[in-house]
Structure formats: structure tokens, C-alpha cells
Amino acid sequence: MRYTIVSDIGRKRALNEDCAAFISRADSYQLAIVADGMGGHNAGDVASKMAVKQLEEYFIEADSASFETTLKTEDWLKKTVKSINSSLYKYSLTHEGCQGMGTTLIAVVFKDTNAVISHVGDSRVYLISSEEVRLITKDHSYVNILVDNGEISEEEAKSHPKKNYILKSLGTESTIEPDSYQVEMIDDTYMLICSDGLSNKLTNEEMQTIVTNTSTLEEKGDELVQLANDLGGEDNITLILLSQSHEEV
Asked: Which of 14, 122, 223, 239 is the most exposed place for a label (fewest CB within 10 A)?
């Protein structure tokens, strides 16, 4: 798996509360993580970094048997995310300035072409090819409920005054139930994992144009972030762009 990580503070924020990581194990299992922190002062920064660090440690220490099948991988991710949620929640209660802190979380475990995803919040996973842009995850947001209920259109959701209102995040409640997804990564298809600082600014067409151009993977990541900044950059912008193809340098 080839990948690039870009995390940018954006044009308006004083602090980057996003965090991302990619970890490879000796047994070929790999983990990609994107977290978008929220909370007063530096609490969002604390939450996202804690979530990524703890998940990375759990992944490195896990027995290979935990990932032998898609079902086992999904179960491991769910248990691990729930444990990290409990850890963040307890931390928020006992540390001044961290009350109410939380973070979104996308965690993807890869083995060959198989990818198992755990998701909390409104960070997203897309599969992008020259034929289509497919949003894999479903935002845990107020406007997404309105869209699902047919009360507003997807276009109206983009400018809704409560578009940033998250219904589920890691660390803000004592218990949580993450969503799970499983996809196949095939050649000529890219996976884009990103915080809403990117997905709120770029259209599917803009993402597709950049991701499927002839630039290197690293250049594509930089171009995505640059366009989000050019379009306002009101939020932190973080992404992991992944590809199975070995043709790019």
C-alpha cells in the first residue's frame, strides 16, 4: 500500500487539532488513522493525539490472530475504539480544560486488498477512480439526519447553519458504538481518508480531478489541501491518500 499524509492548519485556525498516522506491522497488516479533535482551548488537540497514539499502541501490540478474518478485524476495531473512547472520556473528567473534549475517528486496517473501517463522527472515507467517487462512511451529523429524512437536500446540507453539529464523537460520552465498513482496494482506485476541513470545501468532481491526474501521490495530497485553502481554508485540513498501484513514483 502506497500512501501520503498531509495535515495543514488552514487559513483561519490558530491550532491544528487534527491528527493522522499510518502504521505498518511486520506481518503486513497496516493501519491508517485520521482524527479531528474538538473542544475548548487545546482540548481538541489533546483528544485527537490521544486517540491516534492509543490506537497505534493497541495495533502494534495486537496478536496477528486478531486480524485473521474480516469479522475478527471488525471486532478488534470495535473493542479497541470503545476502550479508547472510555479512556478519553475519563481523561476529560479529571483534567482541567479538557471537559467536553472529543474527536472524530477513522481507523482503517489493511491486509492486501482488503480494508476494514471503523468510523465515528464526520471525518470521511472515499473510494475514487476515474469512473466514480464513492463516499463509504456516513456522517454522524445533524444535517445528515435531515438529509436521510428528506427534510433538506444534500446541496442544502452544505450551507446549513448546523452543518458542523456532530451527533457522535469519541470521548464525549461514556460509551460509544462505532460504525463498521469493509471494502476492497483494487488497482486504479484510491482511498481518501479526510477531515471535514477537506470534504466541506471540495466537490466530488474536484477531488476526482486531482486524485486521478498524472501527478505523484504526494503531489496529489498537496494539491487537495492547497485547493481547500484556496477556497477559504476555514478549518484544519488533514488527509491520507492511499493507492495499491505501484506505477506512481
From this structure: 14
| Superfamily of 2-138+166-243 according to CATH | PPM-type phosphatase domain (3.60.40.10)
Q: pLDDT per residue over 194-224, tens digit each? A: 999 999 999 999 999 999 999 999 999 999 9
Nearest one of 200, 191, 192 to 229, comparing CA atoms? 200
The DSSP letter of residue 122 is S
> What is the DSSP code string of 60-97?
HHS-GGGGSSHHHHHHHHHHHHHHHHHHHHHHHHHSTT
**What is the distance, to the nearest Å, from the Cα of residue 140 to the centroid of all Cα atoms in its chain?**
12
Q: pLDDT (tens digit, 9 = 90+) per residue, 84-135?
A: 999 999 999 999 889 999 999 999 999 999 999 999 999 999 999 999 999 9
- The domain limits of the chain are 2-138+166-243
Cα distances from 221 to residues 59, 61, 96, 128, 192, in angstroms, run 25, 30, 36, 13, 9
216-238 in b/e burial notation, b at 16+ Cβ within 10 A?
A: ebbebbbbbbebbbeeebebbbb
